[in-house]
Amino acid sequence: MKFAIATVGMGYVGLPLSLVFAEAGLHVVGLDIDEDKTTKLNAGVSYIKHIPSERIAKAVKEGMFRASTDFAEVKNANAVIICVPTPLNEYREPNISYIIKTGEAIAPHLQKGALVVLESTTYPGNTDGELREVLERISGMKAGEDFHLAFSPEREDPGNPNSQVKIIPKVVGGYTPECLKKACELYSKAINTIVPVSSCRVAEATKIMENTFRGINIALMNELKVVYAAMGIDIWEVINAAKTKPFGFMPFYPGPGLGGHCIPIDPFYLTWKAREFGQHTRFIELAGEINTSMPDYVLSRVADALNDRCKSIKGSSILILGLAYKPDVDDDRESPSYVLIDKLEARGAKVDFNDPNVPEIRPSREHSHLAGRKSAPICGSYDLFLIATNHKEYYTIDFSVYDIPLVDTRNCASDRSRNANYYKA
User: Fold this and answer.
1) Residue 262 known to be catalytic
2) Cβ atoms of 170 and 21 closer than 8 Å
3) Are 357 and 49 in contact (CB under 8 A)?
4) Would you say 200 and 170 are in contact if contact means Cβ atoms under 8 Å apart?
5) Is 187 a domain residue?
6) Cα–Cα distance between 323 and 157 in angstroms, integer?
7) Tens-digit pLDDT profile for residues 231-243
8) Are residue 289 and residue 357 in the same domain, yes or no?
9) Residues 135, 218: one domain?
10) pLDDT of 11-39, one tens digit each?
11) How far apart are CA 375 and CA 377, in angstroms?
């Protein structure tokens, strides 16, 4: 079968992007090294909560989409879009190994005139630097002459019904003006608004700025949460009042830490790259320190709540409500709930979790030791409940019927549990 696009990485970015192109009438093959994923996709089965199986099945049935583990499929593609993870290593430095390995896998099959677009979040200079070099070295072709190269940052917001790939403006930067033209032509076939910029590096920097902006403002709210709590002031009431101002204020919300694949990671890509130019991102690094310290603040509130019952964390049984990093999704990447589990267990607690969207902890790079644990029911046999994610299901529960402490990091149960058992964190 002849197809126009090969998308590498069938995760939260690559799969919805592939479907948008398929629904626009382009033939798409989704490439992934995980055979379980490709088998499910070809059977029309979704493994991502907010992407219905019916949508995949329709694209497969119409012959516009199929999945494969064979990277030789790239030889039939006019465009290759890379949507693979870009985590941090143990030293909080960029790990671009997935990008490089993908480049090595597609380069032998890359056809002259083809377009390669990187969508994975990275630091400025990665697309026209390391990725370009590996593609040129293995393919024997030159970017901007024999094949086209571009960067276009993903803007996925899982769980947000208004976040649809087709209607979110698409920033695109090319290695050369002709590369930019080809990339804009590709995305305009499926996406309503294209925002061309002058280079791959500007497009890379745009994505970093977007998420650094969010990370810094969340850090401000987290810091103010601790400060106001010491003053006896509810940060959530303050935010609700402040956001009534029709100008000059944008609400951000505190939490138990940062989660998701973007906000906890992207700013550190910039701080790492900035050092190469002798620049120090003190503001960003301070925000990172505040956000990563929040699980410890939550633990202090857990200790307070248990202490009021003449108990300690050691030996207590605790149910964490919410494993996903944000409400009403099954995305648990970089979730602060994992940090809370590890920290609580290190202090001797017995910890279970409940999540209506994550029935079982899946194997992952960071938390393989927790894989296989299953969501536990909410019941009164625990010493403490800890709300880490504000899923809609938790808003309907009257926790006051359980005579045990409830520590709420999301202001999820404040209107139903204002009693001696309720603690904000």
Assistant:
1) yes
2) no
3) yes
4) no
5) yes
6) 17
7) 999 999 999 999 9
8) yes
9) no
10) 999 999 999 999 999 999 999 999 999 99
11) 7
Between CA 91 and CA 104 the distance in angstroms is 25
Rounded to whole angstroms, how far apart are CA atoms 380 and 382?
6
The beta strand positions in 154-238, using DSSP E, are 170-174, 194-197
- 122 in the same domain as 174: yes
Structure tokens at 403: 């005579």
Same domain, 176 and 231: no
Q: Which residues have C-beta within 8 Å of that of residue 150, sequence separation ≥ 6?
A: 115, 116, 117, 118, 127, 172, 173, 174, 175, 179, 180, 182, 183, 200, 203
Structure token digits, residue 21: 């192109």
For residue 124, being part of any structural domain is answered with yes
Does a structural domain hold residue 203? no
**Contacts of 37 by beta carbon, 8 Å cutoff, 6+ apart:** 10, 47, 67
400 — phi, psi (to 5°)? Answer: -70, -15
For the chain, the residue count is 425
Structurally, the chain folds into a number of domains equal to: 2
pTM assigned to the model: 0.92
Q: Which domain holds residue 156?
A: 5-198
> Could you give the angle at which helices 14-23 and 53-61 cross, rounded to 10 degrees?
50
DSSP-derived 3-state class of residue 324 = coil
- How would you write the pLDDT of the chain (425 residues) with one tens digit per residue? 345 899 999 999 999 999 999 999 999 999 999 999 999 999 999 999 889 999 999 999 999 999 999 999 999 999 999 999 998 887 788 999 999 999 999 999 999 999 999 999 999 999 999 999 999 999 999 999 999 999 999 998 877 777 789 999 999 999 999 999 999 999 999 999 999 999 999 999 999 999 999 999 999 999 999 999 999 999 999 999 999 999 999 999 999 998 877 788 888 899 999 999 999 999 999 999 999 999 999 999 999 999 999 999 999 999 999 999 999 999 998 899 999 999 999 999 999 999 999 999 988 777 889 999 999 999 999 999 999 999 999 999 989 889 999 999 999 987 766 677 999 99
Q: Are residues 178 and 223 in the same domain?
A: no
Amino acid residing at 308: D
Indicate which residue of 179, 262, 310, 379 is catalytic: 262
Last residue of a domain, one of 173, 198, 223: 198
Is residue 208 in some structural domain? no
How many beta carbons lie within 10 A of that of residue 121, not counting itself? 23
Residues 49 and 181 grouped into a single domain: yes
